[in-house]
Specification:
heterodimer; A: mainly alpha; three-stranded parallel sheet; B: 154 residues; five-stranded mixed sheet
Chain lengths: 162, 154
């Protein structure tokens, strides 16, 4: 018997199969958060360090920075977002398939940081929903890894953004 | 070898011409805004062929509120030259003489609203196209959001 894709039962937590499937689903999402390649400022340098050998983001399954938002489910906003960059950022976010998560890395992405002026968006949460905020100017790579682990815990609990 | 700056300037009569040395020890020539293209021509003929920078200083309250500063460099003489002029809003573009000035003039227009007459494409370069106002003018608020700090904020 053939069924249309939207009729496939996956999310019911009452049945044993559904429960295991949802566990498997969140486990696989949690352990392979693929960030979109999206560096904005000095925080991006720390993000690059995080993905390099010394800190090795691959230990947590997030080493695959995808140049296409279609293949990514995590956006690390690494730096200040200018008013002119804001619509571009939103478009990239909209292009990412659901479910997707956002990390606001650093003070600028979280609240505007030291740039309280006409040019900078005062916190990226004005444009996209943010799951994890990482303080620091810029945060050390360990802080970004900690943020990713925090996000993994959220994904594990099944907190999905729509 | 081109003629020296002294020779070039000696053969011209430019309104408001004043020579001096700037605070950072760079040779400086002031001129009335109308005479700026002629002065730029003279600088180019004298070997100052490398255009380095264009900056604007805003003094609100004056009718000629914008002071434009053009920085040139001579690679033959290893010598710097700064040209200054004042304007209330309009000044002749030097893009036809100095093509690299194109984006500098667009930035000055974007940030201060100085209109460069004769510029091929005088549009905003940094701010969004539909932005209202000129953010680096001194009488424009800095923007952003008010932040409330208290003494014992932790």
């Amino acid at each position: 018997m053939s069924v249309a894709a939207h009729e496939l039962p996956v999310h019911e937590k009452d049945g044993a199969h559904g429960f295991l499937l949802s566990k498997l689903e969140s486990w696989s999402r949690e352990k392979s958060l693929w960030p979109v390649t999206f560096g904005l400022a000095c925080c991006a340098i720390e993000m690059i360090s995080t993905s390099a050998a010394r800190f090795d983001i691959a230990r947590f399954g997030s080493e695959l920075f995808r140049p296409s938002p279609r293949q990514a489910d995590l956006m690390i906003v690494s730096g200040r977002v200018s008013q002119k960059m804001a619509p571009v950022l939103r478009e990239i976010y909209d292009q990412m398939p659901d479910p997707k998560w956002v990390i606001a890395m650093g003070d600028c992405a979280s609240c505007g940081g030291i740039f309280n002026n006409y040019a900078i968006v005062q916190g990226v949460d004005k444009i996209v929903p943010v799951d994890v905020y990482i303080p620091g100017c810029p945060p050390r790579p360990e802080a970004l890894l900690d943020g990713i682990i925090k996000l993994q815990e959220r994904v594990h609990e099944g907190v999905a953004r729509k | 070898m081109s003629e020296s700056l002294e020779q070039t300037l000696g053969s011209l009569t430019l309104p408001g011409l004043e020579r001096g040395v700037s605070a950072d020890d760079i040779e400086l020539i002031r001129v009335a805004a109308d005479a700026l293209p002629a002065l730029v021509d003279a600088a180019l003929r004298s070997g100052f062929t490398r255009f380095v920078d264009l900056t604007v200083v805003d003094s609100p309250g004056r009718s000629d509120r914008f002071e434009l500063q053009y920085l040139f460099h001579s690679m033959q003489e290893q010598r710097w030259l700064r040209l200054k002029t004042r304007t209330g809003g309009d000044v002749a573009s030097i893009v036809d003489r100095v093509p690299p000035a194109n984006w500098f003039e667009r930035e000055a227009f974007d940030m201060f609203g100085v209109r460069f007459v004769g510029h091929p494409d005088l549009t905003r370069i940094l701010m969004p196209d539909d932005w209202d106002g000129y953010p680096l003018r001194r009488d424009v608020a800095i923007g952003g959001e008010p932040v409330e700090f208290t003494e014992d904020a932790r």
